[in-house]
Design a protein that fits this description.
With about 210 residues, the chain is an alpha/beta fold. The protein folds into two domains: about 1-45 and about 100-205, Ribosomal protein L4/L1 (Ribosomal Protein L4, Chain: A), CATH 3.40.1370; about 50-90, no CATH class. Helices cover about 35% and strands about 15% of the residues.
């Protein structure tokens, strides 16, 4: 069983915690991680791209010239896709890009992402993060003390003080343990877990 150090917000080691190898010490499966990240990004697409076909473009009611006798190619509408200001052929239309992968695949990908962060020494466990009032300055001081440039904080319960203290700091994101996902883990250089959230994550994935 892996062991990780636990720090306080003053960067002092205060304890150690045993980590479940089934969650933080598993073999990293990059193929599964790719599949889940691709699914997440597809689900985030707005899918609002749209073009007008010849039936949507205004005008074009009159036949430009008579069918025969002009020497030119026949034409039935000035809004043909061949004409300037005409409609678009096979252009994009609003659609839903989202799809899903099996629940077991998502679970394995999340375990792989957590194991990757732990093995690469990019995971940090904090005993707690006590703050009595909302203060971006205090939160930023802690971030600077640990030299965090782009970090994902995972808390065990809703904490308005922490959420509001961190929301104006660039490249810092805070989520609850229930919302932890593969893309956010990989999109941030460091993963910061509050100690109570570790047990919640292990309980959900082990």
């Amino acid at each position: 069983m892996a062991v990780a150090d636990v720090f306080d917000i003053e960067k002092k080691k205060v304890a150690q915690v045993d980590l479940n190898d089934a969650v933080f010490g598993a073999e990293v499966n990059e193929a599964i991680i790719y599949d889940v990240v691709k699914m997440q990004l597809a689900s985030r697409r707005s899918g609002t791209a749209s073009t007008k076909t010849r039936s949507d473009v205004s005008g074009g009611g009159k036949k430009p010239w008579r069918q025969k006798g002009t020497g030119r190619a026949r034409s039935g509408s000035s809004r043909s896709p061949l004409w300037r200001s005409g409609g678009t052929v096979f252009g994009p239309h609003p659609r839903d890009y989202s799809y899903s992968v099996p629940k077991k695949v998502r679970k394995k990908a999340l375990i792989s992402a957590l194991s990757m962060k732990f093995k690469d020494n990019q995971m940090l466990i904090l005993k707690d993060f006590p703050m009595e009032k909302i203060s971006t300055r205090i939160f930023k001081n802690v971030v600077d003390l640990f030299s965090l440039k782009k970090a994902l904080f995972v808390i065990d319960e809703n904490n308005e003080v922490l959420l509001k203290s961190s929301r104006n700091i660039k490249n810092i994101k805070m989520i609850r343990s229930e919302g932890i996902n593969v893309y956010d883990i990989l999109n941030h250089e460091h993963l910061i877990l509050l100690e109570p959230s570790v047990k919640k994550i292990e309980g959900a994935l082990a």
